[in-house]
Amino acid sequence: MIKLLTKNNRTTAPVYIVLILLFSIIIFFDTWKSLVEIWIRSDTFAHGFLVIPGSLWLIWQNKSLHHQLSVTTPSLLGISFIILNGLFWLFSSITQTLVIQQLALVGMLIGSYWFYLGNSTSRKIIFPLFFLYFMVPMGEEQLLPPLMEYTADFTVALLRHTGITVYREGLHFSLVSGNWSVVEACSGIRYLIASITLGTIYAYITYSKAYKRILFIIISIIIPVIANGFRAYMIVMIGHLSGMKLATGVDHIVYGALFFAIVIFILFFIGSFWKDSTQAFDKKHTINKDKQTYTKQKNIIVLMAIGVSLIVWPYSNQQLQSHYHAQTTIPELPFLAKNTQWEQVDAPDWGWRPQFNGVSTESLRYFKHQNYTIGFYQTNFGDEQQGSEMVNMKNQLIKHKDRNTWHFIKQSTTSLQLPKSEKAITVDLAEIRGNNQDIIVAKWYQLGHQNTNSPYLAKLYQLYKRLTLDTSPEIYNVIFTKKRNIQDNSAIIIETIINLKEK
Predict the structure, then answer these.
(1) Comparing C-alpha atoms, which of 303, 309, 307, 317 is closest to residue 31?
(2) How far is it, in rounded angstroms, from Cα 356 to Cα 64?
(3) How much is the pLDDT for 113?
(4) Residue 176, exposed/middle/buried by CB under 10 A (0-12, 13-18, 19+)?
(5) What is the C-alpha to C-alpha distance for residues 126 and 132, in angstroms, rounded to an integer?
(6) Pairing verdict, β 343-345 and 178-181
(7) What is the pLDDT of the chain when averaged over all its residues?
(8) Do the Cβ atoms of 75 and 119 come closer than 8 Å?
(9) How big is the chain by its Cα radius of gyration, in Å?
(10) How is residue 304 annotated by DSSP?
(11) CA nearest neighbour of 219 among 192, 190, 254, 189
């Protein structure tokens, strides 16, 4: 961006460009802080520190483009992009949806540069600008479950195809030589995100045609997913053939990293055969030169417009939050508490109970009817703080420290008809195993009069409630019971015992 200057404006333009970034950091300090904290603690997203330097490098390395760039007229599309992302930041801040806040923050930064540089210049550096989205640590929590399931499916299928007998139970499987478990590190999420980031950069600097870039990025997504399946299979085979002496400790990680490096090298090497020539890049970037630049006065006016368009969102959020205080009570659900067929009892010795961090109020009660005992857990997170939200992927049924004892057998959804309810609700259903017993669990969110198992719908209901200043309780409900017979249908058990009618 240093070349976006004329001789009369060499000193001031870089200063204003840096000031836009500083404005964003000062105004949205907490959101920037959340980004940096994740980069520091997560190996998966440590590349976030390199994204801004990488974006500048992508502009700098395309030297044939530098002399054609100039600051001309502020872009209305740019400031519209700021406003759109500002709204997303406000709504996500109200509902404590961190990843959307971070995406909106980067969107506002891109919009600020778009507005300042104008449409003509922004069009020519659109990829380096939108590359800034790689700063946002997203996808891990959403992609982990399906990637872990895929890795287990792929590995077990190859083992059986090899002729090895495998007994599988969820993400755990056993061979005659030993037991294996697919955990987060086995999912390949780190390799996938690294491959997408590196593949995107490689596609931009290697190809000039859009279809080549898109195709290579798609391949950069597909290849590491498939390769991770083979990696997991090879690790298990090394352990199996060595009598569980190899690939069961630190060498497990080393083999995986080495395998990934080889896969990426081969991917880039093959991709180089279709590299576009320098002439193709020069032809693509040929434009009419425009030597206009902002005056110092216009620079200040544009900068002030950006500052106002940014600061309005945290101010609006502060005003809305000051008028909203959620109820921390837990309402009674009459189908258990007021049904005389249920008798409240002491906690049975099942060795497991739901427990979430950061709750404001919680209730755990056990009820018994004949041979059925059921646990009913409800929790209210109140106004919510960052990291302690009702809708949070960290609210897991099995805590990390308990994963050696408890594990999932299967997970699904089912329709549940609550007593005196007009329509059935969809709940998440899970079977977990540990301590030589199975526990059946049904869970869902209750926001005022709305019930849902979808975290996305729950966030939308929260947003509507808080914008309308509806302070009715927001509850996370969990119903669980011990599975008495291995052939029992989980959904039928849950629905039957909660629908016992009062005599």
Answers:
(1) 317
(2) 56
(3) 93
(4) exposed
(5) 10
(6) unpaired
(7) 84
(8) yes
(9) 28
(10) H
(11) 192
Place of tokens 């198992």: 453
- Residues facing residue 440 across a β-bridge: 431, 481
Report how far apart, in Å, the C-alpha atoms of 233 and of each of 184, 225, 395 are: 16, 13, 31
Q: Tens of pLDDT along 348-394?
A: 988 899 988 888 899 998 988 777 788 889 999 888 887 788 988 88
Contact 456, 417 (CB under 8 A): no
Amino acid at 239: G
Name residue, tokens 């408890």. Answer: 406
Which contacts of 84-92 are long-range, i.e. CB under 8 A and separated by 24 or more positions?
Answer: 84/111, 85/111, 86/309, 86/310, 86/312, 86/313, 87/313, 89/28, 89/31, 89/313, 90/313, 90/316, 90/317, 90/320, 91/463
pLDDT at 223: 93
pLDDT value of position 5: 42
Q: What is the pLDDT of residues 232-250, one digit of tens each?
A: 898 888 888 888 887 666 6
- The Cβ of residue 425 has, within 10 Å, a number of other Cβ atoms equal to 19
Give the separation between CA 203 and CA 213, rounded to whole angstroms.
5
Angle at 159 between CA 405 and CA 438, to 5 degrees: 25
Q: Rounded to two decimals, what is the model's pTM?
A: 0.85
Position 41: which residue type?
Answer: R
Higher per-residue pLDDT: 310 or 434: 310
Q: Identify the residue whose tokens are 């971070």.
A: 102
Evaluate if residue 11 carries a pLDDT over 50.
Answer: no
Mean pLDDT of 110-132: 91
Residues 6+ apart with CB under 8 A from 183: 148, 171, 403
Sign of CA dihedral 201, 203, 209, 215: negative
Cross-strand bridge partners of residue 363: 378
413: exposed, middle or buried (Cβ count in 10 Å: 0-12, 13-18, 19+): middle
- How far is residue 408's CA from residue 144's CA, in Å, rounded to a whole number? 15
Instruction: Tell me the backbone φ, ψ of residue 168, rounded to 5 degrees.
Output: -110, 140
Strands (DSSP E) found in 284-349: 343-345
For 487, counting Cβ atoms within 10 Å of its Cβ (0-12 exposed, 13-18 middle, 19+ buried), the class is exposed
Q: How far apart are CA 453 and CA 144, in angstroms?
A: 19
Is-contact 36 102, C-beta < 8 A? no
Distance of CA 230 to the CA centre of its chain: 25
Helix/strand/coil percent split, the chain, to 5: 55, 15, 30
